[in-house]
Specification:
With about 375 residues, this protein is an alpha/beta fold. It contains 13 helices and 10 strands. The protein has helices spanning about 25-30, 35, 145-160, 170-185, 200-205, 220-225, 235-245, 250-265, 275-280, 290-300, 305-315, 335-345, 365-375, and strands spanning about 55, 75-80, 85-90, 95-100, 125-130, 135-140, 165-170, 190-195, 320-325, 350-355. Strands 1, 2, 3, 4, 5, 6, 7, 8, 9 and 10 form a 10-stranded mixed β-sheet that branches. The longest helix has 15 residues, at about 145-160. The radius of gyration is 19 Å and the shape is globular. One of its GO terms (molecular function) is aminopeptidase activity. Pfam families: Abhydrolase_1. Keywords: Aminopeptidase, Cytoplasm, Hydrolase, Protease. It is found in: Cytoplasm. Belongs to the peptidase S33 family.
Amino acid sequence: MIRGAGSAPPSYPHGPMAQTRGFQLGRQFARWAPLASTALLWPTGPRGPRSRGIRRCSAEELRTPFPEIEARKTGNLVTVDGTHSLYYEVSGNPKGKVVLFLHGGPGDGSSPKHRRLFDPEVFCIVAFDQRGAGQSVGKKEFNTTEKLVQDIEQLRLHLGVESWELLVGGSWGSTLALAYSTRFPARVKAMVLYSIFIPSQASIEFPYSAAGAGLFFPEAHKAFAAAVDATGAQPGELLGRYAERLASEDTKVRNAARSAYLRWIMRLLSLEPDESIIEEVARNPEDAGDGLAIEMRYMANGCFVDADQLLEECKRIAHLPCAIVHGRNDLLCPPANAWRLRQRLPRAKLIFVPQAGHSSSLAPALRSEILKAIDGHR
């Protein structure tokens, strides 16, 4: 329960759902998600062999998100270093179990759709926009993983929360959840992590490499590299070129880079990318905002994290109840990320979702497993 919370839970209006993905493009892509999701394949067939603590989900009845709700409290929190103002919101049951949702990107921002992952009668739902994302503003150079970790702890103290009873994060949000929980293990009681991203050099470079995701879309990757004059360049150089151009003060240069980036990254979201949707989004680069520049700055700097050290520090949270949910066909964050994390958290439940990519918006089976995992902490 959050300090000063009222006693009566609010009412919850119904409405359609278009959940954003947790890695990039959340805000402008959300409106296209319902259209794209109709093209997905559904998991079929018998379950494969099982290892202890590892489950492959099957074609069972799929869970759907909870009804739309409004935030009952919003605010802006000036960071300890004084360089950013962070937007945060609280929704759901004021006397419920306090859950913190961590969005992806970095730079994607939280969304009202994220509230719908949680039963509002059970959970007190806290979300915030990380530095520079969504409605948060500040100086872009003062934005690192360490500062985000400190921001979460500052938010906890500001809200008067003794500990987060559940920490939920997808993609980059899963990375940040690990960074925070290993730093403050006594302040986290349980976790649900999905579309896992462990920021090793290999994981960072895979989506942008001709020898990684480029193997699946070689013609599109060629255009992606050529757009920033990086044909044949190593992944690190390609990342650097995009980081520079996405942050350019020249609107023409910046928007050209945004469009090229969107054309590439959006086709990695699901099993059957819709070219008409991709082109529609790419034609409106201004809608992407500054999130892409934040993301690429992080990627070009190794996400300001030592991935091996992060995994080593997981011994500090090995006792926590944890579910790890990952799409078997994720081209942004390959399943090996989830497998590596499971090796460091042997008590965690690892769920591989067949015929699912990175985006839970575009993979109903993946979203269903996330909802089930969260519901296990009622």
